[in-house]
């Protein structure tokens, strides 16, 4: 290593930044995978619930409330998913 902080053709602080960036991307990717699995599960549960409404009829207020809850939950998870995608795009831009 020379006196100016360059080793193997890379600046050492730049190498640390690359490692930090990779760890951030791995963390966000893991979170995205988890949220996509949860979103898929909630979507399936919502579809099943809508099927119950079709079978039982909309007279059961609990069924309707549960369906609305699933829809709100899907919207929240989807919003978080989109925010994390935007964060990954921002990391790649830098």
Report on the structure:
- The chain is mostly helical and 94 residues long.
- It has one domain (12-93).
- The chain is 83% helix and 4% strand.
- It is built from 2 helices and 2 strands.
- The chain has helices spanning 12-56, 61-93, and strands at residues 6-7, 10-11.
- It has a two-stranded antiparallel sheet.
- The two termini are 27 Å apart.
- 0% of the residues are buried.
- The mean pLDDT is 74.
- Keywords: Membrane, Transmembrane, Transmembrane helix.
- The chain crosses the membrane at residues 61-79.
Give a short account of the largest sheet: 2 strands, antiparallel
Any idea how many domains? 1
- Estimate what percentage of residues fall within beta strands: under 5%
- Shape annotation: rod-shaped
Structural class by helix and strand composition: mainly alpha
Tell how many strands the DSSP assignment holds.
Answer: 2
Radius of gyration: 23 Å
- The helix count comes to 2
Distance from N terminus to C terminus (CA atoms, Å) equals 27 Å
Pattern of helices and strands: EEHH
Strand order of the largest sheet: 1-2
Task: Work out the helicity level.
Answer: over 70%
Spans of at least 5 consecutive residues with low confidence: none
Report the average pLDDT across residues: 74
